Amino acid sequence: MTPITSPRAGSVGTLRDALPRGAWCAALALVAMCALQPAAAQTWPAKPVSLLVGVPAGGALDPFARTLADQLARQTGTPFVVDNKPGANGNLSAEAALAAPADGHVLWIGTQSMVTINPAAFAQLRWKASDFKPVIKGVEAPLVLVTHPSVPAKNLAELKQWVANPANKAAYASFSPGTPSHFLGYQLNEMLKAGMVHVPYKGSAPQVTDLLGGQVPLGFTQLASAVPHIKAGKLNAIAVTSTQRSRFLPQVPTLAELGHPELSTTIWFGLFAPASTPPAVLESIRAAASKAQADPGYRAKLEALSLDVSDESVAAFENTIATETARWSALVKATGFKATD
Predict the structure, then answer these.
(1) DSSP assignment letter at 115
(2) 191-223 confidence digits (pLDDT tens)
(3) What is d(CA 131, CA 120) in angstroms, rounded to the nearest whole number?
(4) What fold, for 49-141+267-335?
(5) Under CATH, which number does the domain 142-263 receive?
(6) Using an 8 Å Cβ cutoff, are 218 and 148 in contact?
(7) Where do the domains of the chain lie?
(8) Tens digit of pLDDT for each residue in 296-336?
(9) For range 271-283, the mean pLDDT
(10) Averaged over 68-83, what is the pLDDT?
């Protein structure tokens, strides 16, 4: 076998002559790839980054996305732009993220319902959870069961009595069909044997607007959307869905302590990148997002929205997604729910 000299100055021709043409081309490609990977990581972001959000402006998800975008822009010196693409419970935004080049400049803000419920709820889903890689679990919060002040119930026991009276024509609002807000309302309805009508909305903002107006008397809604109105006396808080009381509503009991642990859950918002994003770029995005999560000013802004910033690792976040997907998939099957859009 002909010895191969190391590629010192003046020896490239020797190396090229010693290798078959195909092997020489493959070696050049490998060297180029290795050289480009660090460069790609160093140049992210090389242009403005879009954060795709699957809900309209308002509610709780949009301000989280804008707070994150502002923090990442400050850190990197590059604009991060929130792009609202509502529709089909976030599916349109997920599809748009996957249609863009996977170079780290179009990222997706996914929610618990989008990532862990949509795959079971939408029969014709054009994407799957494995099409994305988790970057960070951004924030987490319970839902809160609220009533309009016209409902003469100050606690769950009184609410049960009020709902049981057919004359009250009770109904419950959700911020979207096929979300924890919907399924917890369904479970509450089953528990109370009440026959309540489900009134779905397209986001937390319109849901809370109608709860405030009394168009619908009760519902599970997002803490960030409800807390200001609860403190102002415009909505009554019956219970929260976390296993421990929320520090933002410490006087409000949990459903678990009221004897209904099966209704316990929290919702989360996370940052995701298309799975085909180059590993070096993905690590750069994760590093920037982790730095944002640790910033005291950033955390304070989100806590002011009644959102707890998560410190969950990527591995733990992936496990959370798998566990919750199994839970909600079983509930979707039990209810027979099928999304239609």
Answers:
(1) I
(2) 888 889 999 998 888 999 999 999 999 999 999
(3) 15
(4) D-Maltodextrin-Binding Protein; domain 2 (3.40.190)
(5) 3.40.190.10
(6) yes
(7) 49-141+267-335, 142-263
(8) 999 999 999 999 999 999 999 999 999 999 999 998 988 88
(9) 98
(10) 97
| Residue 43 pLDDT | 86
* Calpha distance 318→330 (Å, rounded): 19
The tokens of 190 are what?
Answer: 């089953």
Please give the structure tokens belonging to residue 73.
């822009």
CA 57 distance to own-chain centroid: 15
Q: How many CB atoms lie within 10 A of CB 323?
A: 11
* Structure letter (DSSP) for residue 170: -
Separation in Å, CA 271 to CA 134, 146, 281, 289, 334:
6, 29, 14, 8, 30
**Block residue for tokens 């929130």:** 82
CA distances 144 to 196, 206, 281, 310, Å, are 18, 16, 38, 19
Please, is 266 exposed, middle or buried when counting C-beta atoms within 10 Å of its C-beta (0-12, 13-18, 19+)? buried
The answer, yes or no, to whether residue 56 has pLDDT greater than 90, is: no
For 277, residues 6+ apart whose C-beta sits below 8 A from its C-beta are 102, 103, 104, 133, 285
The Cα–Cα gap between 33 and 234 comes to 60
The pTM for the full model equals 0.81
H helices of the chain, where?
12-18, 21-43, 61-76, 91-99, 112, 118-121, 156-164, 180-192, 204-213, 223-231, 279-294, 296-303, 314-335
Cβ-Cβ contacts under 8 Å for 34 (sequence gap 6 or more): none
